Amino acid sequence: HNLSKKIDLRDWIIYAYARSNGYSWWVDPRPSMDYRQHDSNEIGANSGLVAFIEIWKKARNGWYRNQVLATAQFCDLLECKPIQLLQSNNSLDKIHLALMVFKLRRKKSEALMLALMLLIPGFK
Length: 124
What we know:
The protein is mainly α. The chain contains seven helices and no strands.
């Protein structure tokens, strides 16, 4: 599928596909698998100031928005309300999305960061 080549976040595509097809999903509260990250990994390492700055840059330039929209298209979720709001990319819809963040993100810190990014002018 050519669209999948546009998606850099493979875990997102797996999660979205499973959820959109009604498959059960369980998040283990106890990590039990070793995960190897290569030195040039720019996406997976998300702790510390340098990672925060990279996440912030990607959010400002529209990279995350494009990843979400490509994943939604791949999983045939373009009619989903949050995706429709994200597609329009206007200020009122961003406010509407910001009010929904706790339904969209599991971790409170991620939900608050998403709300902040949606409400600050200049984010794509």
